Amino acid sequence: QLHTPTNLLLLSLASSDFSVGLLLVFQIVLIDGCWLYGDIMCTVYQYLAYVITSASIGTMVLISVDRYVAICYPLHYSTKITQGRVKICIFLCWICSWIFQSLILIDNVKQPGRYNSCVGECAFVISYIAGYADLAFSFIIPMIIIIGLYIRLFMVAMSQAGAMRSHIAAVTLRHSVRAKKSQVKATKTLGLVVLVFLLCMCPYYCVALTGEDNSMSASSAAFVICLFFFNSCLNPIIYAFFYPWFRKSIKLIFTLQI
């Protein structure tokens, strides 16, 4: 019962977020002040961090599209959103993330450790053009898509609630209460998704693009980077555990009732 197109997207999101968690083990080493694994491993670590985070953001956009079609075009959902198409979209999301970040980080990949000023440092530098491209495709465009789709979802939910109230006069009061609850829930979901994404991503991109990262202390830089990664920690809560059926499935699995 869990093998659905939506859950394939959640699986992709879970895979990317879990991988970010593994990479944070190396980030703890960076916080400690010295990189012990050489220039090549430093480049691999930074490269994977960029690719996986980019894939996570791309999957968030795909989930927004999936919800948009499910709510706005429910009768066509089963024909438009199939497992085959979702698998292709997930594959393209990861491939595009890999290609895009390869272009962004090409100088660092070609010559590992070129920006290190001393032994034990793991420095990664990208040009302003690459930085603005990363800002646009990893932050601005995904945010515009997510906000636009969720606003559309909210409007459709309100219109459906209004149609329900007008057609069922006998239970107007009850449906009015339900409609208000639905609107509040939709508003909270929209606000939470946007707020979490902004809070986690904005500090990183602001520091990186203003060039103030060179004047920051090690602890401040580590906090900004960890906050950037923390978005992946919150994604499972927002996109998975808000589903009652998902929580029930997890409970059945971990209590050995399957």
UniProtKB/TrEMBL annotation:
GO terms for cellular component: plasma membrane. Residues 1-239 form the G-protein coupled receptors family 1 profile domain. The chain crosses the membrane at residues 20-38, 44-65, 86-106, 126-151, 190-210, 222-246. It comes from the Eukaryota. It is a multi-pass membrane protein. Gene3D superfamilies: Rhodopsin 7-helix transmembrane proteins (1.20.1070.10). The keyword DNA repair does not apply. InterPro entries: GPCR_Rhodpsn, GPCR_Rhodpsn_7TM, TAAR. Its main location: membrane. Keywords: Cell membrane, G-protein coupled receptor, Membrane, Receptor, Transducer, Transmembrane, Transmembrane helix. It is found in: Cell membrane. One of its GO terms (molecular function) is trace-amine receptor activity. It holds the Pfam family 7tm_1. PANTHER family: HISTAMINE RECEPTOR-RELATED G-PROTEIN COUPLED RECEPTOR, TRACE AMINE ASSOCIATED RECEPTOR 19P-RELATED. Belongs to the G-protein coupled receptor 1 family. This is G-protein coupled receptors family 1 profile domain-containing protein. It comes from Fundulus heteroclitus. The lineage of its organism: Eukaryota, Metazoa, Chordata, Craniata, Vertebrata.
